[in-house]
Amino acid sequence: MNLPFRLALAALILSMGTSALAATPATPPAATQAAAKPVPGVPVPAGSPQQAGPIRFQFAIYYAKTPATDPMAALRGALGKTGGSPKLLASMPTPSSVSAPVVFANWNTTTVLKEYRAPDMESLQRFGRGISREQAEALQKADKALILDFAHPSQQSSAAMQKALQVTLQVARDTGGLLWDEETREVFSPDEWQKRRIDSWANGLPDVSQHMTIHAYRSGEMVRAITLGMGKFGLPDVVVSDFSWSSNRPMGSLLNAFSQAMAEGITLAKPGQFDMDLRALKHAAARDPLLSGLKPNAAAVARLSLVNGTWESGDPQNRLYEIRFDRYKGSDRYAQQNALLSSVFGADEDPVTRLKHNDELLAASKAATAQLPKLRDAFAKGLQPGEYILVKAPFTTAAGGNEWMWVEVARWNGDAIEGLLKNEPVDVQGLHAGQMVKVSQAKVFDYIRIYPDGRREGNETSKIIARMQGAKK
Hints:
- The protein has three domains: about 5-10 and about 355-470, Roll (SH3 type barrels), CATH 2.30.30; about 55-200, Cell Division Protein Zipa, Chain: A; about 210-345, no CATH class.
- About 25% of the residues lie in helices and about 25% in strands.
- It has helices spanning about 70-80, 110-115, 120-125, 135-140, 155-175, 190-200, 250-265, 285-290, 335-345, 360-370, 370-380, 460-470, and strands spanning about 5, 55-65, 85-90, 100-110, 130, 145-150, 180, 185-190, 215-220, 220-230, 235-245, 275, 300-310, 320-325, 355, 390-395, 400-415, 415-420, 435-440, 445-450, 455-460.
- Helix 1 crosses helix 5 and helix 5 runs antiparallel to helix 6.
């Protein structure tokens, strides 16, 4: 019998630029706007996502050694070049009294190591931007910091933000410090701050991906991803829950695109709904990489459902918009996710090979399945962030044969494997790519283990299948 058989899936995981495990902030986020807490799961309101009240955020400059010049004098000098905006205050005003851009400076030389300690070496490996190892090591002993709290009316967001970024950079350059963004929990060298935070603006619009981060981490059996930093623009942070590591890259693109759309001033015509056209993004540096990565069958439009997100420990102290997928058809939420991502970004052609198992192929499969107990143990102990396992398993066709397809493992208990179907069936009715399925370890034919750095292990049978197919042709 000729059996529908999938070759190896294309590499699906790619870091989202700033994607990493959620990290504990050095200090609690300071850019919180006081407001009544939205009810999780309720559709977000129609209209603009922009908050009405003043926007507040915090930057800082760390010093591992004595500053080259007095930081407060440098700050006054930098502010003098901005025409008096923001205005330096002796104390931070209440939100209701912020009618113009202001900044409050705290030159801390006594309690930094205790109350405002720089990130540790592990965090700096993930979230240090342009920082050398020597600088990272020196930061561990930094006992001085200039802490800058900025505030401005929301209608002045773009101009005030650019000035705040420029002032902070100028002080860091003049004094020889390293810059800290309290909301995104990143440390920057002055050159990297210039490149990412200042040079990335175009026509008054930020490339918002350069001003926020995305933390993606395992939450239960699946993955959760959340932005950090949108509060600096008076906008909600965005979260996506319950997806698999193999969807890391398109989910990151989705979060970046919607965050960019909000920064460009979108409004929601209906509560909880927004139709996002990637081609409508105005900032070329934010838009063009998304469009260049689309497959030929991509629609480039996402029909998003938006609800108030559920706050979890480590999340930014900000409003949360959660993206859901229930405007797409699917037997479960995973199939709906797959339907959105495949529609927006396009789907790979899913080639099917019809063949009979020969002795060489069966021997390769036997060698692969001998590794399954070790893989099951590794899965039980916990894979690294970004690491995942696929197994090739049979699904019964209407004619009584088997269609072999890839499943991304979500749960593995004894012989029972549950996971997400990664292929679109050809001869199996009632199944669709993306939905949760159950398979037996005893029937698995092969496996692929994908590591966070992109290395791949397993799937030796694909080489034999490709050779058999070539000989058939």
